[in-house]
UniProtKB/TrEMBL annotation:
The lineage of its organism: Bacteria, Pseudomonadati, Pseudomonadota, Gammaproteobacteria, Cellvibrionales. This is Uncharacterized protein. It comes from Microbulbifer bruguierae. It comes from the Bacteria. The keyword Membrane applies. Keywords: Membrane, Transmembrane, Transmembrane helix.
Length: 150
């Protein structure tokens, strides 16, 4: 006769810790990318002949990278603690940035490392979607119930 323990703890999902570490690393790399973008377009942004709309459009890629970086860094600790709201917010922010980078790739911006940032964003989004879909790592193995031999 086997008695199952109904108070057994749910398996711990280490993917949240992987997502938190990835978010922190991605945040740092996105900050560097935003800095590089602002350095590259600063002379055009501050130029007298540049119109307001053109300035906004020149700042938009850097602003997207910087805001996603801040979001990822801000929610690193809650992701580490496996908070559902952190997963949802970081997924939404990274998905939005990924879609914007796909748009820029389709537009064909010359001499811009969009592909690198898109690959980084896609890997984080894939991980966050997998966690949201219920993927658990390490997978919980079904252990056979211990039998009492006495």
């Amino acid at each position: 006769m086997s008695v199952s323990n109904s108070s057994a703890a749910l398996p711990h999902n280490a993917l949240y810790k992987l997502a938190a570490a990835g978010a922190l690393l991605l945040g740092v790399l996105l900050i560097l990318g935003a800095y590089g973008h602002f350095v590259a377009v600063w002379s055009a942004i501050t130029g007298e002949e540049t119109g307001f709309l053109r300035r906004v459009l020149l700042m938009l890629p850097g602003a997207m990278l910087a805001s996603t970086a801040a979001l990822n860094i801000l929610f690193t600790k809650p992701l580490w603690q496996a908070r559902g709201y952190a997963l949802t917010i970081t997924l939404a922010g990274n998905l939005l940035t990924m879609l914007y980078l796909i748009y820029l790739m389709i537009q064909g911006v010359p001499d811009h490392p969009i592909g690198v940032f898109l690959a980084l964003e896609m890997s984080q989004v894939i991980l966050l979607v997998a966690i949201r879909a219920g993927l658990v790592w390490p997978a919980a193995a079904d252990m056979p119930a211990a039998t009492n031999t006495k």
